[in-house]
């Protein structure tokens, strides 16, 4: 059974797998598929994510959709430096949150102007990963390189939910460096490709700006609003497997593990003020469980220019109760993608997925349950334009 790269280029790849709405702050499975392309390769993608998350606060008030839509661009370029050495540069946005509470509920402050009355969270993380891949032999490749990460966050806590901490603000912006390493095994004549990739955690040490009403009380307003602090984005493991069934059909599996249980963000002022008021410092956000996600799919070449893929998705979530910036307990989902060859070298991909989120209680990091979120769903649509010199 002989399977060429052209026949399998799309069938083994979910077009829309670049972004998701998953456990913790995760928004991307951080795939590195471009590294495995032949010849010179480039891609540019656009993703639109639309989660719908509603619920009730502990007073029984309705919480309208608090998860805002967001968009993302991603790109990758890859080239062969010498016959056994390749280089890839990949940009993605792996972590993030975009939340805003509206209406009349316990996440809205009644003693503030309308433009500053809502609890909101806006987190955006951008990654540029540079990978060198070396072919040990015709089947085995080892690869690795640095990952440059920019993290921005703006958090505003408002309403009865946060008691004396209503009015708390948190902001920071930082760039830090991590690393990536992995190994792959390929047997192109059988359509086989397996890869295992490790990404290190990335520690950001930066100035964190805080306004803390609790600190105004315990320190009588005499504290610094800008202090050195740190936040560490988690490490991850990705295992990808694919194999051909015949010349036009392939199956694949993508598995990812992220130890979100190890993640906790302790802003310095909040930690100090809660240590005095409560006897122990509490984080702004943390998680109770690690995340495992799985995608299983099948790809089919329908014609020389058209291929489709279908997939099933599962994400364990990072614990229930969950932080109010993403109160879901994992999801089940389905996906559909298609790729059309516009010319010998250019291709256009379009895909979408629909997700059913697990019900979850929303909680503060003090372990106080503050909401109940049920029967929520979301969808993702994405498109990608790619160029390959090897077709």
Describe the structure.
- 5% of the residues lie in helices and 55% in strands.
- By secondary structure, it is mainly β.
- The chain has a single domain (5-388), classed as Porin (Beta Barrel).
- It is elongated, with a radius of gyration of 23 Å.
- It has helices at residues 5-8, 213-218, 268-278, and strands at 41-52, 55-57, 62-63, 70-82, 85-92, 96-100, 120-135, 140-157, 168-187, 192-199, 202-211, 226-233, 236-246, 249-258, 264-265, 285-286, 291-301, 306-315, 322-323, 331-341, 346-357, 360-363, 369-373, 377-388.
- It is built from 3 helices and 24 strands.
- The protein has a 14-stranded antiparallel beta barrel. A 5-stranded mixed beta sheet has the order 3-2-23-22-19, with no helix packed on it.
- Belongs to the OmpP1/FadL family.
- Its main location: membrane.
- Keywords: Cell outer membrane, Membrane, Signal, Transmembrane, Transmembrane beta strand.
- InterPro entries: OMPP1/FadL/TodX (IPR005017).
């Amino acid at each position: 059974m002989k399977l060429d790269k052209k026949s399998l280029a799309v069938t083994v790849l979910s077009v829309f797998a670049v972004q998701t709405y998953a456990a913790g702050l995760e928004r991307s499975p951080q795939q590195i598929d471009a590294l495995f392309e032949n010849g010179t390769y480039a891609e540019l993608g656009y993703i639109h994510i639309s989660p719908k998350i509603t619920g009730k606060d502990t007073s029984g008030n309705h919480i309208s959709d608090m998860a805002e839509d967001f968009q993302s661009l991603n790109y990758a370029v890859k080239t062969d430096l010498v016959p056994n050495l390749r280089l890839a540069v990949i940009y993605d946005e792996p972590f993030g949150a975009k939340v805003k509470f509206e209406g009349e509920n316990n996440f809205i402050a009644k003693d503030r102007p309308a433009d500053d009355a809502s609890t909101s969270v806006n987190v955006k993380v951008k990654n540029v990963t540079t990978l060198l891949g070396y072919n040990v032999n015709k089947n085995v490749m080892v690869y690795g390189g640095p990952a440059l990460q920019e993290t921005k966050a703006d958090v505003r806590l408002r309403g009865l939910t946060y008691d004396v901490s209503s009015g708390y603000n948190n902001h920071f912006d930082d760039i830090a460096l991590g690393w990536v390493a992995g190994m792959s095994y390929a047997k192109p004549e059988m359509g086989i490709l397996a890869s295992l990739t490790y990404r290190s955690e990335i520690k950001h040490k930066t100035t964190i700006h805080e306004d803390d009403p609790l600190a105004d009380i315990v320190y009588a307003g005499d504290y610094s609003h800008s202090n050195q602090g740190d936040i560490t984005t988690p490490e991850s493991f990705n295992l990808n497997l694919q194999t051909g069934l015949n010349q036009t059909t392939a199956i694949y599996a993508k598995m990812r593990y992220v130890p979100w249980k190890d993640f906790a963000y302790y802003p310095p002022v909040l930690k100090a003020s809660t240590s005095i008021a409560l006897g122990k410092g509490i984080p702004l956000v943390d998680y109770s469980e690690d995340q495992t996600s799985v995608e299983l799919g099948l790809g089919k070449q329908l014609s020389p220019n058209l291929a489709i893929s279908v997939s099933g998705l599962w994400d364990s979530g990072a614990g229930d109760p969950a932080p109010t910036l993403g109160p879901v307990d994992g999801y089940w989902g389905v996906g559909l993608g298609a790729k059309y060859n516009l010319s010998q070298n250019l291709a256009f991909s379009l895909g979408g997925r629909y997700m059913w989120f697990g019900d979850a209680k929303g909680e503060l990091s003090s372990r106080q349950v503050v909401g109940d979120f049920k029967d929520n769903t979301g969808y993702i649509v994405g498109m990608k334009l790619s160029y390959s010199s090897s077709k």
